[in-house]
Amino acid sequence: MTATGNGPLAGVRVVELAGIGPGPFAAMLLADLGADVVRVDRPGGAGLNIDPAYDLTNRNKRSVLIDLKAEDGPGQVLDLVERADVLIEGYRPGVAERLGVGPQECHARNPRLVYGRMTGWGQEGPLAQRAGHDIAYIAITGTLGMIGKADEPPAVPANLVGDYAGGSLYLVIGVLAALQHARTDGGSGQIVDAAIVDGAAHLATMIHGMMAAGGWQDRRGANLLDGGCPFYGSYETADGEYMAVGALEQQFYNEFIELLGIEGEAPARKDFARWDELRAAVAARFRTRTREEWTAVFEGSDACVAPVLSLGEAPSHPHLAARGTFLDHGGITQPAPAPRFSATPGSVYRGPAQPGADTAEVARDWDLPGLTGLTGLAKEDDR
User: Fold this and answer.
1) Among residues 163, 198, 226, 381, which one is catalytic?
2) 339 prior amide bond cis, ω within 30
3) Helix or strand or coil: residue 300?
4) Which of 131, 243, 244, 370 has the greatest number of C-beta atoms within 10 Å?
5) Is 163 considered catalytic here?
6) pLDDT tens digits, residue range 106-144?
7) In this predicted model, what pLDDT tens digit does every residue of 311-362 receive, in sequence order?
8) Residue 364 DSSP SS3
9) Does residue 302 carry a catalytic annotation?
10) Is pTM beyond 0.90 here?
């Protein structure tokens, strides 16, 4: 089986200390782009009760089993680090140091290593040692409070805004920037402290600017992009499905109300005092037809209207199917690597790594004959 893909990161070696959530997703992104990602799994698994064969965040990776609490465990990880370009860990602050694989030990073996740290609260601060999950991280940044209707509790955006947007993506950006620095003349490795609270706050930079200028109210459901605007939101159709409307600009709005069939009877879009009336008119009209019928009405238009699809429906949308936004690998439909590259395209070339299954292969490819790991436990841990 191919060790790595031919993406733009082909030749980059990454050691991932197994965890859950944003760390594995960040490592998957690097692997999708062609990096050789070796995941160091622990005996007994990483804590999620999921069949490893379906953990898509471990696709395109290889796995070795190493017990970091065993006498020779830290040394085996440091042997990998010596040959790596990047390490990713998602422990609470201080844990990697106590295990003997912290930045000091790793940089002593490999001064040019990029040491990527993924946490919710960050490496320091009053909450640094506290447990947490996505919802708490985005709560204190103000991000969660922006999402949802004004008279309802904030809407929970799964773990996309915190774990993956504010966490994984910022870790990947940081790792790639630090890797560029390490590869310059006189460059060196460094630590990347990627905290979800920092990334989630940073995502709202434009909103903070709008608020300072008086163009954004500090409450949800009252603004242009948060559902407060009647021509930027979702509306129920006759069959209980939804259509999404984003007709912000005047020319798109004109086309929208014409195709919707309320031209001439809708209140002026700039008459804020009548926005509730406009919203009611739009909602009533959408309830007269099914989602499929409205999709056909707006097909080929610039009205900025789209059907709200489920996760299962999305891969079959004609546009996504034409682009190959989703693919099938190993019988599992999944999102294809993104973004796309003209000369070095990413790909899915391996299914999810099975704990410890690749120890011999990694030992050969990374020239580490002493990497014995715990291969004898792989099958037991797979159950």
Assistant:
1) 163
2) yes
3) coil
4) 243
5) yes
6) 999 999 999 999 999 999 999 999 999 999 999 999 999
7) 999 999 999 999 999 999 999 999 999 999 999 999 999 999 999 999 999 9
8) helix
9) no
10) yes
